[in-house]
Amino acid sequence: MAAAAAALLYLHFAFALGVMAGGLIVTINFHLLAGTLKKSLTPPHLAPHQLIIAKYYLRFIASGVIIFFLIAGKLVDPLGLFVGLSVVVASISAAAALEFTKLIFKEAV
After folding, report:
1. pTM above the 0.90 mark?
2. Using CA atoms, how far apart are residues 28 and 107, in angstroms rounded to an integer?
3. How far apart are CA 8 and CA 77, in angstroms?
4. Residues 98, 101, 106, 109: is their CA dihedral positive or negative?
């Protein structure tokens, strides 16, 4: 949301809407993936891996269709959508790097 707010302040509305839509798409996908894995890998209800993969591809196709309609309908700026889709991954990578550096410097003391 901070990235969308910053985009709204400095760039045009379609770009900010793309950032927000992309972030929302990725966040919902991660949430649904976590739910699928939690339900599928918790004993005694272990699901076959084919079902997990099928659900993954259904989410992937649904995301692609949503992205297509957002861009084809000119509702969002494609570059803003790309930034929004990347923001969550960049945040996770930054958090992992921060934890890794904390671990390294903790070992050095």
Report:
1. no
2. 36
3. 12
4. negative
